[in-house]
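[User] I wish I could look at a protein chain and see how it folds. I have put the entry right below:
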Amino acid sequence: MKDLGEAKKILDIEITRDRSTDRLWLSQENYVYKVLDRFNKAEVRPVTTHLAGHFKLSFKQCSQSPVEEQEMSRVPYASTVGSLMYAIVCTMPDLAYAVSTVASSCQI
């Protein structure tokens, strides 16, 4: 075993320290950019509110016909939600409500 110095990154989580103020920051910015790129959403517009209060999802919005189900089978919905859940658990709890609302709206 050997000492490699202060950790700067672990499990794709960047670690930033400010010893003068005793502060520590954890960031998954690069991970989120990779997820956006993977699901072809790299050009989305950022918003300050993750999910508006009036936003409602229902089972009526889920695919209703076999044609819609076949079309939606090509959408990596479960992978997208799972990738966002990893970010929630590690460093972004502010996304929890939005992702849980989307995750519970339709069966994935």
Remarks:
- The chain has a mean pLDDT of 81.
- The chain has four helices and three strands.
- Residues 77-90 form the longest helix (14 residues).
- The beta strands are 9-10, 13-18, 23-27.
